[in-house]
Amino acid sequence: MSRPVGNRPRRAAYALISVGVASAFAITSLPAAYATPSATAVISEVYGGGGNSGATLTRDFVELGNAGSAAYDLAGYSVQYLPGAPSASSLWQVTALNGSVAPGGRFLVAEAAGTGGSTALPTADATGSVAMSATSGTIALVSGTTALTCKTAADCAADGRIVDLVGYGSALVREGSGPATGASNTAAVARGTALGDTDDNAADLSAGTPSPVNSAGQTPGSGDGGGDGGGDPTTPGTVRVHDIQGTTRLSPLAGQTVTRVPGIVTGVRTTGSKGYWIQDPAADADSRTSEGVFVYTGSATPTVGVGDSVLVSGKVSEYYPSSTSQSVTELTAPTATVLSSGNALPAAVTVDATSVPAAYIPTAGGGSIESSALEPAVYAQDFYESAEGMRVAFSDARVVGASDAYGELWVTVKPDENATTRGGTLYSSYDQPNTGRLEVMSLDTTASFPSADVGDELSGTTTGPLDYSTYGGYNVQATQLGTLVDNGLKPEVTRRQKGDELAVATYNVENLDALDAQEKIDRLAHGVAVNLNSPDVVALEEIQDDNGATNDGTVTSEATLKRFTDAIRAAGGPRYQWRYIAPTDNQDGGEPGGNIRQVFLFNPKRVSFTDRVGGDAVTATSVVKTRKGAKLTASPGRIDPASDAWDNSRKPLVGEFVFHGETVFVIANHFTSKGGDQPLHGRYQPPSRSSETQRQAQAAEVNTFVKSLLAADRNAKTVVLGDLNDYEFSRTVTTLTDGKVLKPLITTLPAAERYTYVYDGNSQTLDHILTSPAVTHYDYDVVHINAEFADQASDHDPQVVRIDVSRCRRG
């Protein structure tokens, strides 16, 4: 089922995934009796033939009875069903209960309806959607709504939550010497009128004509037959939102149909993933259970409005925005009755530095945390999950991720959490992700979304339901958006290099090709000529071939580079020349047909390029030791392009430059992306970073090449730079610098300035410049012109190092 998410119809596909726990199963010897017989609540009758061939009744049912002298409270209880011969993948199916069984009375639980039969059940006291077998199965009355996991009689005997259990037909899980026998399409198994219980199903229950009775004493053909907890469509059913949400990330009622769930509509989404949120104003006392839930209407525009008091019936579902994300608990295929309109909305949950815990998320050794009980006072992600679907509110929040084309921005509700010098939130450790970040979207389709930069503020109060998606995790679907305060962030301009300084820069220009609009080319050119102040050498990443994503075998970039360097010249920069190695078609990853590659631009009036023929897409350049130092066998050339480290990825471009008589080696890189890594906010914790394996191999290749340069000349001046797609604290960078052959210059900046990219409200470092030990005198700068701005020419910020070559001479 394709599911657009929020305001992003182009990117997200929801997949409905079964929620379950695989459990090993082995048939063991069965005990004759294993529990204390119940003198109060028991399972009095079980029928799984409803609607089957020959049946009179249209639905399956479970009837409970109370042999005691006082009412038996069923709040928080459930009846659960297991197939008669469960496999390793079989799951107990849960139907939640509420209400009570009167002394000597009955309580009727309606289950799935078949296509046959002619007589309705009496009005049921609770309802589920379990399709029970007519001939063999197990029913348990359970204190709790969490699904049982036992698969044998012995294991179930050890589970103290089971109040009573009936196995019928050939059920392997049963009480006593054997299951109750004789169940069929036309026969139920039932206790006698005295509701005797000896914990021996074969002795206590016998087959006969189904005779369901509800708490009102009604029999088949009376009541409304709907099995939804009452005949009045304006009367709430027995299930509340907090029952649906439960105390973990998964609903204990997943897969079940619930009826007439009460709530107030708090938000309506009419685009993308259409639906609305309801919230129960009568909250329970458990901080783990959310009182809000999303009602998914599919392609149908919701007909309810904010403030409507509604009763909603539908199926409880867990939808996963992606294979590794957490799920969203939803009601699907809904029907709703509007009781009244214009009601006050439930109070919003305050989201701020006080309420959101400092710890990010629990761990499970890389496994799923979905079944773990929430700890909203301990973990930020548990806190957000405990409010999933509820109204939340924050005030005067700083923007830490600029507005994008999809009407989204990021704020932090913790203004002091790892603040950058320009207003963002720094991502500086795998172990301590930022907890105060929240994505904000607007449900108001009539108002324009604010264009916000990092450091701006949403002043006043922002309020709306808390949702979850694969893109960033928890987000506020704002029904009330704070007022944007522009704090005037400006793009930076670095200083011009001095006469004896060699300026070397790196810039990811985001899939630039000759077919791009002139405006994009001009803005990127302005970044080089003005903001970077015309470096002597610029290593470019993501230069595409001349016809961009057209997949026709073209691999040259001459037209692309001609347009780009012309634009730089027009912006006041020098007349750059260029060098690159054209890749083999569709072998370097990136956009199919685009053939992205690294390119050297250089100002021939300031620096010369040493051309040595022989470099091509498949030939490796190597280092030769001479009496004058190291030199390359091919310039420009590639580092070991046949290595598996570069499969479907960009190969490093190596060039030999001469500045003021000194040779400088420049290695331009674009390591493989983070695609395939599990998200920070996902269900698997800690998340797997599978893409890091290839980047480490790539880093090792570059490290080996730099060591060969230094072996030929320990004073070789080397600059390694580019988009490494990894952080300064990553194993990728550690591998790249092994042996202290390279120094990552980002680490020389104050911590609050160490970033080149902003993702999900995290200011982080993906682009790097590293230098060899001989580069002793330099001035380094990250030039923030893109990543923090709503209006950006690229999603990366460039950076530059100015090397005082005269002070780095050999010796």
Mean pLDDT across the residues is: 91
Fraction in beta strands: 25-35%
The N- to C-terminal Cα distance equals 67 Å
Biggest sheet features? 7 strands, mixed
Helix content: under 10%
Give the low-confidence spans: 1-5, 7-35, 223-231
Number of helices: 8
Structural class: mainly beta
Global outline? elongated
The rounded Rg comes to 33 Å
Number of DSSP strand runs: 42
Overview of the molecule:
Strand 38 and strand 39 (762-764) form a beta hairpin. Helix content is 9%, strand content 30%. The protein is built from eight helices and 42 strands. With 811 residues, the protein is mainly beta. Helix 5 (518-531) crosses helix 6 (558-570).
Topology:
Elements: E1 15-16, E2 41-47, E3 59-66, E4 72-73, E5 78-83, E6 93-96, E7 100-101, E8 106-113, E9 126-127, E10 137-142, H1 153-157, E11 162-168, E12 188-190, H2 201-204, E13 206-208, H3 241-245, E14 257-269, E15 274-279, E16 292-298, E17 309-320, E18 328-340, E19 349-350, H4 380-386, E20 391-401, E21 408-412, E22 437-442, E23 457-469, E24 473-478, E25 483-485, E26 501-512, H5 518-531, E27 537-543, H6 558-570, E28 577-579, E29 597-602, E30 608-609, E31 623-626, E32 629-632, E33 637-638, E34 653-659, E35 662-670, H7 692-712, E36 717-723, H8 731-736, E37 743-744, E38 757-759, E39 762-764, E40 767-771, E41 778-782, E42 799-804
Parallel strand pairs: 8-9, 16-18, 19-20, 22-24, 26-27, 35-36
Antiparallel strand pairs: 1-17, 2-3, 2-12, 3-8, 4-7, 5-6, 5-10, 10-11, 12-13, 14-15, 14-17, 15-16, 17-18, 20-21, 20-23, 21-22, 23-24, 23-25, 26-42, 27-29, 28-29, 30-34, 31-32, 33-34, 34-35, 36-40, 37-40, 38-39, 41-42
Helix pairs in contact: 5-6
